[in-house]
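Single-chain item
Fold in token form
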Amino acid sequence: MVSGGLIDREIGFFHALRDAGLNISLAEVLDATRALGVVDLLEREHLRAAYAATVLKRPAHRQAFDTLFDLWFPPVTGEPSRNELEQGEPGDGEEGEGDGPADTAALRERLKELLLDGDEEAMRRFARMTVSELGRADTQPGRQSWFSYRVLRGLSPETLMASLLETLLAGQQRGGMAEKVARQTISERIKQFQEMVESEVRRRLAEDRGAEQLSKTAVQPLAEQVDFLRASRNDMAELRRQVFPLARRLATRLTAKRRLGRTGKLDFRRTVRASLATGGVPIVTHHRPHKPHKPELTVICDVSGSVAGFAHFTLMLAYALSEQFTKVRAFAFIDTVDEVSRFFTPGGDVADALARMSAEANLVWFDGHSDYGHSLEKFAADYPDAVGPRTSLLILGDARNNYRATGLQTLRGLVQKSRHAYWLNPEPAAYWGSGDSATAQYADVIEMVECRNAVQLEAFVQRLLPT
């Protein structure tokens, strides 16, 4: 039997996962609960594996899952025992009291030994002890808190690399494969120790403040939830890695829709003929074969400033989905427009294509600041065949036009010529129309869609794909 306390903690854990952005259904919650009856609950890692197997869907979500699992199901509680302190060889202070400064030189020497040995359990005990020794700080009178940076700054594990290499490579030639392997091994162990310290700090904070409160700040937003305009270099790199898996998921759903979709138009002649066998009553209707429409796709994107990351990601996704369209043509602009389809060749490296586009495309005409009006007029004049009755037109940008001419009449003509037309804006809708934003004027001509992150982009692409 599973205790009620464990079920309550499980429910809180799943609520925290949902708040972090993971999509967990009721059926998955029930599967996870059933799994508790077949795993050894005294083995914490078995419990972690059971929950991960039942609720995780993407490898990218594993880090958030592990962080929250450690908060809700900590490996230990309270201060380290005297036995742990003695094994860790701390300073002279009594258990958990911190009576006097810790001997950082002795702690660094002990860390060096652990990094050489690679004993994970010993490193975990040492992390607990060093957080107790070095990580405590009085933030307010009568109240203390815990900080990982105090521990890592005091021990500076990265600075041990040279002496560790010297020990590991004693008598071996430097600069060869042996050094590369040793350096990588040490780097991985240092990173592992840093993660142990951070995990221990989170555990102590959760004990002091409650797992519910800490769960709200302990997990970074998932890559697909990060706003394009606020994404860091690492966030954008992760988003780029998700492009082709995202395209495959969307293409699979599209194929299923086509297979299960409604048949074509009613075949009146065949239906009437069949009704003769039932006295003229059309009990069975016949339809013409359903031929899914594959439109063309034309993308016009602003690649200036902070919007460039959003445009690059969307271009990559568009070309990853190119098989779903008869033709894909891409155009980029800053204050003038140039076709960049030539940089995206079938089977080519998309990252190289983006780099070539940035270096070789003719995107600046006057001063290098966004000019939507001139770019739209230039596009309509130089590429009149780019938009037609089968074209889905997609414009990407924040519509911040530096108070210049908007080119509304030109845009209206392009929208009227196209089959569908949408404008994806990476800014929050609350900011539309503020400052030099021409969003209000453009929204009267073309449907404006908020597209701040990959989740919203995926929802939009499913709407855009032919059915």
